[in-house]
């Protein structure tokens, strides 16, 4: 008998069908990957297994967890099972931890909730759980607080809490989505080891096909609340036949068709740029200390080129972006766009700023929710000395929206009426409206589902070819950078450690850090031969 | 629509309408004395009875609403007009000397017991409705400045603000185009709450004789004048007291209701 068996699970919320005939099973010690894009019902499936469904939800079918019929149990009995028989790990480690309790105490508390043990014994077991999650007490005392740990270490504390009671099943919902690629690899390795050592079933929910391809025994692909295909991995990559699965596989490693029109002349020159931040003063006396976020960085972007800048969080890439955009003054070196400094005489240079714009990561935070799309898109006109007015302004807005595949009618809507992918299109329209030469894409596709991401990458490639745009593509996602850039830079701790043609950097990385990054990227199995 | 919003709006509306109607009509003249009819219990002729000068209490409460509302409106207005720009400026220049000066100035005002300062102002400049307004208004400034600064600080980290900066917009323009419209919900809610506090403060000042001066009717002074006769004519205190209670209750419910109604997340959760 399976450890977990879900049969014909149907869930509806206030009459809207969310899950349709979901069937899957997890054996002891087996790793099952559930993949889907947003709205596919993958998280809802996890919540249904735990019986943590939102109010108004109706579940039908059968969920059996090591002999317990989950859909028939009372809330009291379910509480006893949650944490004890089934543990859960969520995406955001910071919100899963209590910021004012030490890590040792938090892990011990979960033990004491479920088992009547002494505080001393609970602490002892917490120590063991943390050690198993690679947080040995010698280096990470139990008295540490969550804010004293990095994102990956916090996620390990969350995992320690989940496995402290040695549950038979662990559900991990996007456990590595908020983490850097090298940290992601470590956490995935940890989860895999724990599942194998304890014979624990692991249900790994993710949007990233490559993540599960590396480690799952069994893969379940979901779309719109239904399981479209499932099977043993990696064999499933050879046999998959459902059009959606194939489209997902293609989109995960999408290579937009790009044209080559790179000119030799540099458009943007960054020369020995240094950026310091003042740290908060430690005391009343003594000078302020500085943190050097960017340490003498130099590079060029040639006209028409697509340059990638990769690095993990905290490497200084966002700081560098702000400096290039002329939002902050640099403490050393110079940034020239088309031969002119972006920041001159303590002020940003308007004439230079007109030649570039930016698209940010978060499709939800990038727009003032109280403005209509037309006004949002037209905002960069502020940079022009003589912005178009009246009919000309309307025409410019419509033309920008049409370039990104939206319609004139969309100008009159509010931003909340659009999906994430459409919002990113609007952000691109906003960047295009002043006809810039350089567009900085700051993690512009990182928050999107893979199929939407593929569409946006195609759009960018198409616009680049039509308007001769130059892109600076900043991302932590190496697989995307590999597919869309000509050249790439690798940044670590404020310095550029490697630079070269993208193919060379990925095929023959020279620097140790680059090799580490590339090794950490989860790989899809080799493309099926046609 | 939630219940507290409806009840709050209805209660507040009753007093606002009473105040507006009092400009054109009251059952009796509130300035004329009618000694023969003094200290009457509530009856068909005088719905809420009469006071020690024979004035109709219902009419006085209507006119008193006018005084209370006028003082509170102007006091909240002063607080918003000065406090909101100060808060926006402090948030826009966070970490600078300007921010420090504004926020420490706020702390200074907050540190004083407000009613004592109001008494001091009216003692120095004379007791009048105008001075009461100024005194209450000053203490509204830091309330709005802090509220706006706090909300604005988080808005300044949004990408759309960054996009506006990339579009070359300056600090003042971003504050008014992007920050202010996104804090209006908070301002409306805080405004209603400060409004009710203003009514309480006005009643308090009038009670000690530092608010609107006789013969202008005021709820606080009606309470003060009823003090000596409370044991045998309780209606003199009960009705103005109820007026204050219901107005403040109504405004607080309105504030709570507006907060829920204006917050799209809370609104969605209720549905």
TrEMBL record, chain A:
> Keywords of this protein's UniProt record, alphabetized?
ATP-binding, Nucleotide-binding, Transport
Report the protein name in the record: Peptide/nickel transport system ATP-binding protein
For this UniProt entry, what is the primary localization, expressed as one broad class? Answer: membrane
Q: Where in the cell is the protein located?
A: Cell inner membrane
Gene Ontology cellular component list: plasma membrane
The UniProt GO MF terms for this protein read:
ATP binding; ATP hydrolysis activity
Q: Which residues form the ABC transporter domain?
A: 4-249, 268-518
In the record, biological process GO terms are: peptide transport; transmembrane transport
**What membrane topology term does the record carry?**
Peripheral membrane protein
Give the family this protein belongs to, as stated in its UniProt record.
Belongs to the ABC transporter superfamily.
Q: Which PANTHER family match?
A: D,D-DIPEPTIDE TRANSPORT ATP-BINDING PROTEIN DDPF-RELATED, TRANSPORT ATP-BINDING PROTEIN
The record ties this protein, via SUPFAM superfamilies, to:
P-loop containing nucleoside triphosphate hydrolases
In terms of PROSITE patterns, this protein maps to: ABC_TRANSPORTER_1, ABC_TRANSPORTER_2
TrEMBL record, chain B:
- CDD domains, sorted: TM_PBP2
Its principal location? Answer: membrane
Q: Which domain of life is it from?
A: Bacteria
Task: Describe the location of the ABC transmembrane type-1 domain by residue ranges.
Answer: 65-255
Which keywords appear in this protein's UniProt record, sorted alphabetically? Cell membrane, Membrane, Transmembrane, Transmembrane helix, Transport
Q: Which family does it belong to?
A: Belongs to the binding-protein-dependent transport system permease family.
Name of the protein this chain belongs to: Peptide/nickel transport system permease protein
Which species is this UniProt entry from? Lentibacter algarum
């Amino acid at each position: 008998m399976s450890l977990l068996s879900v049969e014909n699970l149907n869930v509806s919320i206030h009459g809207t069908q969310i899950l349709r005939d979901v069937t899957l099973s997890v054996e002891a010690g087996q790793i099952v990957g559930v993949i889907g894009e947003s709205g596919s019902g993958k998280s809802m499936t996890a919540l249904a297994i735990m019986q943590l469904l939102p109010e108004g939800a109706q579940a039908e079918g059968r969920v059996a967890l090591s002999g317990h019929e989950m859909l028939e149990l009372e809330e009291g009995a379910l509480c006893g099972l949650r944490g004890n028989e089934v543990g859960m790990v969520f995406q955001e480690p910071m919100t899963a931890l209590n910021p004012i309790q030490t890590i040792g105490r938090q892990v011990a508390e979960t033990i004491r909730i479920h088992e009547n043990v002494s505080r001393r014994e609970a602490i002892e077991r917490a120590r063991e759980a943390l050690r198993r999650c690679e947080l040995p007490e010698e280096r990470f005392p139990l008295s540490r607080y969550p804010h004293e740990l990095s994102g990956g270490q916090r996620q390990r504390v969350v995992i320690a809490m989940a496995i402290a009671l040695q549950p038979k099943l662990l559900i991990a919902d996007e456990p590595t989505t908020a983490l850097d690629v090298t940290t992601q690899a470590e956490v995935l390795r940890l989860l895999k080891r724990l599942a194998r050592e304890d014979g624990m079933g692991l249900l790994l929910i993710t949007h990233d096909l490559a993540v599960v391809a590396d480690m799952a025994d069994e893969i379940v692909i979901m779309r719109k609340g239904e399981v479209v295909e499932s099977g043993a991995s990696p064999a499933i990559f050879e046999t998959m036949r459902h059009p959606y699965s194939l489209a997902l596989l293609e989109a995960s490693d999408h290579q937009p068709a790009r044209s080559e029109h790179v000119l030799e002349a540099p458009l943007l020159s960054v020369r020995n740029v240094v950026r310091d931040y003042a740290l908060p003063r430690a005391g009343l006396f003594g000078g302020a200390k500085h943190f050097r976020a960017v340490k003498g960085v130099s590079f060029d972007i040639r006209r028409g080129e697509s340059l990638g800048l990769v690095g993990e969080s905290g490497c200084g890439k966002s700081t560098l972006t702000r400096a290039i955009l002329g939002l902050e003054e640099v403490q050393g070196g110079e940034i020239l766009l088309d031969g002119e400094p972006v920041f001159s005489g303590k002020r940003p240079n308007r004439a230079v700023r007109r030649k570039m714009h930016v698209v940010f990561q978060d499709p939800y935070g990038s727009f003032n929710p109280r403005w209509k799309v037309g006004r949002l898109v037209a905002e960069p006109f502020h940079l022009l000395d003589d912005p178009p007015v009246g009919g000309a302004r309307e025409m410019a807005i419509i033309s920008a929206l049409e370039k990104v595949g939206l319609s004139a009618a969309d100008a009159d809507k509010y931003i909340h009426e659009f999906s994430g992918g459409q919002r990113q299109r609007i952000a691109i329209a906003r960047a295009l409206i002043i006809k810039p030469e350089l567009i900085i894409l700051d993690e512009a596709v990182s928050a999107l589902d893979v199929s939407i991401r593929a569409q946006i990458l195609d759009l960018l490639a198409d616009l680049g070819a039509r308007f001769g745009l130059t892109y600076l593509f900043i991302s932590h996602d190496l697989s995307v950078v590999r597919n869309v850039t000509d050249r790439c830079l690798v940044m670590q701790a404020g310095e550029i450690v490697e630079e070269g043609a993208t193919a060379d950097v990925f095929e023959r990385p020279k620097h140790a850090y680059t090799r580490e990054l590339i090794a950490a990227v989860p790989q899809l199995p080799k493309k099926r031969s046609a | 629509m939630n219940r507290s919003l409806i009840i709050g709006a209805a209660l507040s509306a009753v007093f606002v309408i009473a105040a507006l109607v009092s400009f054109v009509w009251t059952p009796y003249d509130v300035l004329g004395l009618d000694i023969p009819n003094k200290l009457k219990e509530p009856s068909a002729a005088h719905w809420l009875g009469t006071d020690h000068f024979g004035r109709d209490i219902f009419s006085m409460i209507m006119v008193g609403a006018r005084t209370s509302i006028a003082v509170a409106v102007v006091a909240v207005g002063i607080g918003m007009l000065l406090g909101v720009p100060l808060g926006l400026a402090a948030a826009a220049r966070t970490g600078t000397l300007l921010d420090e000066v504004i926020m420490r100035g706020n702390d200074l005002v907050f540190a004083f017991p407000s009613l004592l300062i109001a008494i001091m102002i009216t003692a120095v400049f004379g007791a009048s409705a105008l001075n009461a307004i100024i005194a209450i208004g000053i203490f509204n400034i830091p309330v709005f400045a802090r509220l706006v600064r706090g909300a604005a600080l988080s808005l300044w980290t949004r990408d759309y603000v960054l996009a506006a900066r990339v579009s070359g917009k300056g600090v003042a323009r971003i504050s008014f185009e992007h920050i202010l419209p996104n804090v209006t919900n908070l301002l409306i809610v805080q405004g209603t709450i400060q409004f009710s506090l203003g009514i309480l403060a006005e009643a308090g000042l009038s009670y000690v004789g530092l608010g609107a001066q006789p013969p202008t009717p005021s709820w606080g002074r009606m309470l003060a004048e009823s003090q000596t006769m409370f044991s045998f004519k309780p209606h003199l205190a009960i009705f103005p007291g109820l007026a204050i209670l219901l107005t403040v209750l109504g405004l607080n419910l309105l504030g709570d209701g507006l907060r829920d109604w204006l917050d799209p997340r809370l609104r969605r959760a209720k549905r």
